[in-house]
Amino acid sequence: MTTEEMLRLSGTHLAPYMQVATVLIGKTREGGGNMFRHQLDTMTILIDYNYIESVLLKAAIVHDVIEDVPDFNHNTLLSIDYESPQVYELVLEVSRKPAETKPEFLTRIRERGSHNAKILKVADRISNMISLGFVNKSEFVKRYTEETVNYIYPIAAEVDKAMLSELKMLVGSRRKCVGRG
């Protein structure tokens, strides 16, 4: 990381967003752990790929709050700091709307999503694919893996070839585990 990048990160205050994300601590995941940790995993994946833009990192920390906490008061998120409105808009962009099917949701992001929404969705899927290694339901793993190939690969191919490469490695690994290598 360059000195300039470290200086940019030094002014990014993530703790208030982490505090908001703690509402996800009791929400378990199919592969174990909880949704709070998934938020932080998604953020660290972004940093691993050198995405250090503050709105993107903040949105990663709270990206599932609106979708997974039905009674969440969005004003809590909007009142954190001067970037909160942008963070909120990005979170809405990567949140599934109530009447939207999963294919419609992923197609919307691929066709009309902002660059940051696409990057965030790919990082989110990398985190999910890593966790998928701990899931014992082979039908779920197969379905999720195929969904990744059909919907997330095209997004990753557009925005970050290195992230696409990791997704392909993860898909190959998960296919081997469920007998479709």
Could you tell me the CATH topology label. Answer: Hypothetical protein af1432
- Unreliable spans are none
* Number of separate structural domains: 1
> Could you give the order of the helices and strands?
HHHHHHHHHHH
What structural category characterises the helix and strand content?
Answer: mainly alpha
Average pLDDT confidence is: 91
Calculate Rg over CA atoms: 16 Å
CATH architecture: Orthogonal Bundle
User: What percentage of residues falls in helices of 4 or more residues?
Assistant: 55-70%
Notes on the structure:
This protein has 181 residues and is mainly α. The protein has one domain: Hypothetical protein af1432, CATH 1.10.3210. It has eleven helices and no strands. α4 crosses α7 and α9 runs parallel beside α11. The model has no long low-confidence stretch (mean pLDDT 91).
